[in-house]
Amino acid sequence: MSKRLRVALPLAGAGLLAVAALADPLPPDATYRPLPTLPLDAVKALDEAQKPQVMQRQQALFERRYDLSNRPIANFMMSGGRKPVQGGVRVKLPAGVTWDSLSAMGPNEIRERGLLPAGFMPLPHVKQATGGQVFPNQEIDEVGRQELRNLRRFDVDFDLSDRFTPEFPPPIFLTTHPELGDVSHGQLLTIKNYYQLMVGLLTPVQMEGMRLLLTPFPQEEFNQTEDRKSADQSLGVTCLDCHANFHTNAAFHLTPDIRPQAARFRLDTVSLRGMFNQQIHGSKRSLRSVEDFTQFEQRTAYFNGDHVSAQRKGVNLPDRFDQVPMMAQMQNIIDFPPAPKLDPMGRLDPSKATQQELAGEQVFLGKGQCGQCHAPQTSFLDNNMHDLKLERFYNMGQTVNGQVALPDGAIKTLTLRGIKDSPPYLHDGRLLTLADTVEFFNLVLSLKLTQEEKDSLVAYMLTL
Amino acid sequence: MIRFVAFASLAIALLVPPAFGQTTDPASPAPGNPGGMLPGTKQSASSVPAPRQTNPPDQAFIHSATVGGLAEVELGKLAAQKATGRAVKEFAQQMSRDHSAANDRLSTIVKAVGIAPPERLDEEHKAMQVRLQQSDGAQFDHSYIQGQIIEHQKTAQLLEYEIGSGENAELKDFASDLLPTVLGHLRMAQAIAAEMAQQAQAEVPPTNREKRK
C-alpha cells in the first residue's frame, strides 16, 4: 500500500462516519406518494363515512372567513352574459377593527395582535392530507352527460359556492377569428363535440392539439388502480376538465412543487386566455414556454410532481416533437374576452369609460401600484414572479384544516385581462371578489387608499 | 348489556378530548387519507382511527421528536454555561426551557400510546455534543447556533410531516401547537447568526478585508 493511500483511507473512513452520523432523514413518504395499504372498498367505505365531517369542517372555515351571501353587482355580467359578478368585500374582519383602522397599522402590530383577516391567509384544500384535483359539480355533471365519464370523488366534494366561480361553460374567443366573438355555441368542449364545433374554424394542427387536450389520461385520483378516489375504474381526466373551454371552472388541487403534504398550498385553476403573451408558466416552476408546461403537466398537475406514482398509474407523455407543439399552438390562439373600453395599448378610451373607471385607472397606475406588475401594454402581465411577503402579517406555522400556513414565496404575476370572469382570486382562490383583492393589496402594499379610490379600482377592473 | 355499552361509550367520550377527529373545528387535527391506513387499524364510530393508536409516520415522529427534544435540552444546558455571547446564552436558556415543556407533553402522549421512546441521544446528536464540548469561545457560539439552525429546520419539516401523515390526533395536535414556536426559534437563531457574522466582519481590519477578497 502506498504511503499516500494509507493516509487517504482513514480520512475516507472519517468522511463516511460524518455522512452516517448526519443520516436522520424523514421517511420516504414525506416526498414520495406512499403505496396504498388497504383495498379500495375499505378505503372507499372509510372515505365516505368521513366525508360529511370533512365537508362540514371546510364549510365552517369558509363561513368564518367570508360573507358568502348572494350580492351581485347590479346590471353587470361575465363575458358570456350568463352569470352575474359578485360584489362587495367578502373577507370578514376580526372583531374590533375596520378596514381603515387595520390599514393604519403596520405589519408587526397586525401580526402581534393576530389581526390579519383569516380570509387573507392561505386557503387549505378541502382535504389537505389527501389533496388532489376536485372539480365543480357543473363540470362533473356535464362531462358525465356528454362522455359518461365520472369526475366525482367519493371522499370530497367541491367546497366553494357556485356564486364565486366562473360562468359555465365559459365563452371561447380565438385570436384567429376575432370577428366571430364567442365560438363555444354555449357548450362545454369535450372529446365528443369538439370536431363538429371546430371543423372549418381551426387548422388540422390546432384540431389535433385540441383533441389531445380533450383526451382523458390517468391521473392521481382518477385511474385504474386501488389508489384512486373515483368509485369506478376511471378513464382519467383531460386538460380541459379544469381549464374548461380554455378558461377555468375553478377546479382546484395542491401545488405539485412543495413537500411535505401539509405545507402544500392550494391552486385555483388559471385561465388559458391570453396564453400567447405569457412568458412564464406554473405558479412556482417558472417554465419558459407553454410547450414545456404542456409536456410536464403529466408529471405535475396529473401526478403531484411524483413521476414514480405517475409511472405506476399509467402516465401519458405527449411526444415533444409532434404532439406537444400542436397542443401549444391550440392554446396560443385562445384570446381574452373583448374589452371594448380599452384602446390598443391597454389604456381606457376616455370617450367610452366613465369618470369612476378613469379615476380607477389613475389609482391602478399610480397610488395603487397595480400597474407596476400588471402592465396594461403587456396584457396586464410583467412575466415575473413576486413575493408579497404576506408572512409579515401573521405568525407562520399555524395549522388550519390540516394545512400549515407558510410563506407563499414568489408567485407568478397573473393577468388581469378579463379578470371579472375569473373568480376566485389569487393563486389559491382565497379572495372571492375584486373588492377583496383591493383590500388585500391595500394592506399588503400599505397603500392607504380611500374608499372612493377602492371603489374606482373595482369599477376599473370590471372594464378589463 | 345495552346499558353497559352506553355507559362504556359515555366513559370513553369523557376520557377522550373532542380533538379526536369528531369535531368540525378547522383548528382541530384534520382527517387523514384512509388510503394509507394500516390493515387492522381500529376505528371509532365516526370512521376515524380510534384514539391511542399510531401509524408508521407517528412512530417515526415519536422517535425523531423525542431524540431532537432531548438534544435541545442537553445542548441548551451546555450552551447556557459555555456560550460567551449574551444573545446565544439567552437563546440556549430558552431552548432548554421551551423544549423541556414540549418534551413533557410528548412523553405523556407517548406513554399513553404505549411506545417506548428513545431515552438517549442518537449518534448524530452525540457527535454534535462532543464537538461542542471540545470547542470554546466564539467558535462554540458559532457551532452551537449553526447547529441550532439546522436542528430547527429539520424539526419544522418533521412537524409538518406529522401534521400531514400522522394518524394519532394527540400527536398531530402536539405537532400543530409546537410548529409556530419552532419556526420562531429558527428565526431567532438565524437572526443571532446574522448578528454574529456582522460582528465578525466588523472585527476584521479593513486592510485584511481587502486582502481576503
UniProtKB/TrEMBL annotation, chain A:
GO MF annotations, alphabetized: cytochrome-c peroxidase activity; electron transfer activity; heme binding; metal ion binding
InterPro entries: Cyt_c-like_dom, Cyt_c-like_dom_sf, Cytochrome_c_Peroxidase/MauG, Multihaem_cyt_sf
UniProt keywords, alphabetically: Heme, Iron, Metal-binding, Signal
Signal peptide residues on this chain, from the entry's feature table: 1-23
Residue ranges occupied by any Cytochrome c domain in the UniProt entry: 355-464
SUPFAM superfamilies: Cytochrome c (SSF46626), Multiheme cytochromes (SSF48695)
Protein name in UniProt: Cytochrome B6
Native organism: Bradyrhizobium australiense
Lineage: Bacteria, Pseudomonadati, Pseudomonadota, Alphaproteobacteria, Hyphomicrobiales
Automatic annotation (TrEMBL), chain B:
Swiss-Prot/TrEMBL keywords: Signal
Entries under Pfam families matching the protein: DUF4142 (PF13628)
Extent of the signal sequence: 1-21
Region (Disordered): 25-58
Taxonomic superkingdom: Bacteria
Record flagged with keyword Cell wall biogenesis/degradation: no
Composition bias type Polar residues, residue spans: 41-57
Boundaries of every DUF4142 domain copy: 57-192
Name of the protein in question: DUF4142 domain-containing protein
Species the sequence originates in: Bradyrhizobium australiense
Lineage: Bacteria, Pseudomonadati, Pseudomonadota, Alphaproteobacteria, Hyphomicrobiales
